[in-house]
Fold ADP-heptose--LPS heptosyltransferase.
Amino acid sequence: MKTDTRDPNPTTPAATDATDAIGAADRQAILTRAGSWLTDARLIELPYDFETGGRPFPTRMPRALDTLRNVSSAARRPFILPAQNLDVVHLISAMGVVLGDSIIGLTALDWLRRTHPSLELVLYRPASSPDYVEQLYRLAKSIGLGTLRDLPWPAASIAKEERIVDIGNIVFWPSFATTPMIDFFLQAIGVDAAQVPPHAKANRWLAELALPALPAPWRDAPYVLFSPDASSRVRTIPAAVHAAWIDRLWDAYGLPVLGFTPIDHPRYTSIRSHAPDTPAFLSWIRHARALVTADSAAVHAAAGFDVPTTAIFTTIDPTLRVRDYPHCTAVDFRIEGLYGVHSSEAPDDVELVARAWRDAALDAMPLPEPRPALRGAAGSRESHDDAREHLKTVAN
């Protein structure tokens, strides 16, 4: 699943008759400011939507949303939300445009929901947000985690006495890259992260979701997941070591190895065609005995379902992502020259990754202790092979 791969120093849109009115410097400022905007039409808009083309670029410099008196923005000034005194809070761009980030951001909102059950949460979503991300928000809505509204939205329709919290353009907030992500989101909505216990930071609201059943052959069959792909090649486990990982997982567990990446290996089954959407993706993770992955969305989902996980990080301190996940073992595989480079397809960077994995001692990387079956019997290796062949037949 993808991450927000926008360049922290993006190239501004090509000049047109519409954008010439504000100039290149202002266009750059519109895209990179930590926060949302209020246009001349009094619409609340997001830099992300301007950059991705989901909304037309402003013809005049808009007003920063947090200049309104009823708007709070932790990007400008830390604050504590007086939730006990509020009936409703309006959350702009809550909680981003990335699946993994959104899982964590919704965990912060889940804490707010549980501690202040009478508080109405209204989430304003970006116009250009990918549908697979929006599917997560629709799932969250189904368990009472907020009302959804699509941006742009007329500011005048929000009562002046109602609180607005601006969480726009988080990739450009300085604390986004230096703070554990759950603490970042808690602070962004005005909650003291130090007052939230670790067990409430592990995405367990996911376990409340009604998810689709797995295909019949796998509903009671145990399996482990291998998910090597991330949204950027600098964070992906290269294809050259896939076979070694699959062999190791088979030797360790004696269970079928499944994954969302097409890999040609006799002990591996691709389930990509059986995970067409976010609910199915989450369901496969939910029922896994164990997971090895470089995909942060899979890591965050697995934490919510208590799936034992080995999570491999090549460009960031793992504590910023998995500190509060009791069933996750993080592998700090930071590669020299790539720390902090969360997205790159540059050949030199990809070669650094390939070289690091060629030299890696895979056997030294810990494997998760598999959990017992959620239901049903363990079955035999032969029955697992039968299920694998049946799944291939269905897929074809």
